[in-house]
Amino acid sequence: MEIKCIGILTSGGDAPGMNAAIRAVTRSAIYNGFVVKGIYRGYRGLITDEIVEFKTNNVSNIIQQGGTILKTARSQEFMTVEGRKQAYETLQKEAIDALVVIGGDGSLTGARIFAQEFNFPIVGLPGTIDNDLYGTDITIGYDTALNTIMDAVDKIRDTATSHERLFFIEVMGRDAGFLALNGAIAAGAEAAIIPEIFTEVDQLEELIKNGFRKSKNSSIVLVAESEMTGGALGMAERVKKEYPQYDVRVTILGHIQRGGSPTASDRILASRMGAAAIEALLEDQRNVMIGIRDDKIVYVPFSQAIKNDKPINRELLNTLRILSI
Ligand code: F6P
User: Fold this and answer.
1) Going by CA atoms, what residue is nearest to atom 13 of ligand 1?
2) Taking the model in full, what pTM does it have?
3) Which of 264, 288, 282, 255 has the alpha carbon at shortest distance from 101?
4) Which atom of ligand 1 is nearest to the CA of 105?
5) In a 10 Å sphere around its CB, with 0-12 CB exposed, 13-18 middle and 19+ buried, how is residue 204 labelled?
6) Which of 292, 237, 265, 198 is nearest to 17 (CA)?
7) C-beta of 262 in contact with ligand 1 (< 6 A)
8) Are residues 30 and 128 in the same domain?
9) Does 129 share its domain with 168?
10) Could you give the CA distance from residue 70 to residue 51 in angstroms, rounded to a whole number?
């Protein structure tokens, strides 16, 4: 079937750079002669028909804005067959022939199921601060979140040093340690506690054993949010019990990590990926996520992007260990 009209939506947790992606998809689509429709509130808007045609000026002045002008949601209804049927009916009613979905793991899982059930063309863009999608070196929003973490840790370091305290700072990542590990390197923290190696070593014990405070009067440890690690609060509880000599404090950075104006890297990444999504549809690609590997655009089948756990780079762990002596 010839594609004439492309729908675009953002879904799941928002990420800085989503607006730059919306702009790129919209303008590339119009440039190539497609009609574009913006779908509000993710899959929920597909079910409730919250759809508006987008012209080039609907996406003016948004490249620098955090969040998503299309709003986002985590739709429970779309997880049901009934909900997806309704979504399909809306697409037919709106004469939308293909979708570009910007989101993380859960959103692309939804896209994959929907594409299979209704034989509907979908291209995904990896939009998540977590950087946990397989097949792409980096996801939209990750770099901005990393910079936000770095700025926050820089500030906490001032007070940590003055009081000679041990700080556990919890960062987001939904069971992935990319933000914690690279955030720790960028901010010069003493360690990162991440779920990927949780079963291999007792990271807290290793940290204490290595005499992490010997040469220092304060310490900062980034902890990836995860049930496995118990988060920063879990770590602090353990220290209070097992090593009561330390003066411990906890900061949970929370949703501050999801906001803010995207960095240049995120804007460029989102712009390239948005244009690539339209290119992919023109090349008759279906059910793939746009990725970037070694600075080249790649097409990653949804099945690969979602199913596989993206490995952390162990060289980074080692670098962090060496540099925190
Ligand atoms: O997936 C992005 C993310 O920010 C995760 O890092 C975090 O676990 C989750 O979303 C929080 O989701 P919510 O904003 O729905 O609480």
Assistant:
1) 13
2) 0.97
3) 288
4) 1
5) buried
6) 265
7) no
8) yes
9) no
10) 10
- Do 247 and 282 belong together in one domain? no
CATH number (domain holding residue 15) = 3.40.50.450
The Å distance, Cα 283 to ligand 1 centre, comes to 33
Same structural domain, 253 and 266: no
Domain tally for the chain?
Answer: 2
- Indicate if 124 and 230 belong to the same structural domain: no
Ligand 1: does its nearest atom lie under 6 Å from the Cβ of 107? no
Q: Whose CA is nearest to atom 7 of ligand 1?
A: 174
Residue 312 falls within a domain, yes or no? no
Q: Are 179 and 171 in contact (CB under 8 A)?
A: yes
Residue 246 C-alpha to ligand 1 middle, in angstroms?
31
Check whether residue 24 and residue 116 sit in a common domain.
yes
Nearest residue to 251 (alpha-carbon basis) of 169, 130, 162, 160? 169
Print pLDDT tens along the chain (325 aa): 799 999 999 999 999 999 999 999 999 999 999 999 999 999 999 999 999 999 999 999 999 999 999 999 999 999 999 999 999 999 999 999 999 999 999 999 999 999 999 999 999 999 999 999 999 999 999 999 999 999 999 999 999 999 999 999 999 999 899 999 999 999 999 999 999 998 888 999 888 877 665 566 789 999 999 998 899 999 999 999 999 989 999 999 999 999 999 999 999 999 999 999 999 999 999 999 999 999 999 999 999 999 888 999 999 999 999 998 8
Residue range of the domain that includes 54: 5-141+262-307
Q: Which atom of ligand 1 is nearest to the CA of 74?
A: 15
Residue whose pair of structure tokens reads 């067959």 in the numeric block: 81
Tell me: do 269 and 130 sit in the same domain.
yes
Note whether 283 and 225 are same-domain residues: no
